[in-house]
Amino acid sequence: MIVNPERHEPLSRTSWNERLARFAIRDIVDEAIEGGPPDEEAEYGGSVYEGVAGERWALALLGKQVDWPWRPGHGAGLLDGEVGVALAAGDRDRFRAAAAASIEDPWNDIGAGAAGALVAARLLDDDEVARAAIGRLWATWSFDAKARACVWTQKWDDRSEQFLGFAHGLVGNAYALLSTIRLQGLEHQRELIERVVDALERTAIREGGLVNWLPTLGSDGDDVRVQWCHGAPGVVCGLAGAPAHARLDALLLAAGELAWEAGPVRGNAYLCHGTAGNGWAFLKLNRRMRDPKWLGRARRFAMHALEQRAGGRGLWDGDLGLALYLRACIEADVRWPLLDVR
Fold this sequence. Notes:
Layout: H1 18-35, H2 52-61, H3 82-89, H4 92-104, H5 114-123, H6 127-139, E1 142-144, E2 149-151, E3 154-156, E4 159-161, H7 170-179, H8 186-203, E5 205-207, E6 210-212, H9 232-239, H10 246-262, H11 275-289, H12 293-308, H13 319-331
Antiparallel strand pairs: 1-2, 3-4, 5-6
């Protein structure tokens, strides 16, 4: 099974309406400011993923400065921890204090590990930390006999998995390396794209002209997802900025068609595992393929996501992430917040 239909819903018939999108952005910003900073007692309340760091940064990008205090992150990483808080705050000293722990984290993904530190180092212009993270990623990227491809392993709580998607595994780590290609030699540049494409081709699940990926090498078909964090939309978002490559283009187009055919994510409007995150893959394909149908599809998903809006807090899993997606659809801007742009 390439898609679980229970995870998706039919696309709304509502046509793109820029005026409605602009009103919604204004409404989301006003509600966020009126609601004040997230709960101080929340475990991840300081983070960029669902806490004050992400909300404060998003509001500034949307034209509203707030003086909510920066709070400690949960651990060292990008999405929940200190690296992410430092990135949102533009605080290089705070970033350097957390970077080493993030680089060595056995999760070894973009959320908690070296890839997240590498993304932040790029956006904060810290080549020294970037080179340390690049070294860690190459040193831990190994051949798996079962997959017949090079993958990374994530370890936590006496467990280990080999994740394939953007949020926790192969694609997120490859994205970070691709985004810092200028710091790597020509041999690494060539090997990087070939390793990634080989791994994606060998781990893909296919149906007709569509393609998807399970969350991990050990996943069964019951765990199939079509989201930014796991599955085809995240593959597109992570790799659409890679150098031209015919085999990769074929995978990205098939993944984009899969996201469109699957439809919006049921009951979730937001970036990480919702309709807006899937729609962002269409924005990426609009830029890479220079085909306006993808921008039209992104905007249709935006209208559907507006109808799904449920008042959630946070950047990756709340209304402010949706507001940034609406703005990206208005401007045809492919840049994912706090990964492609600070």
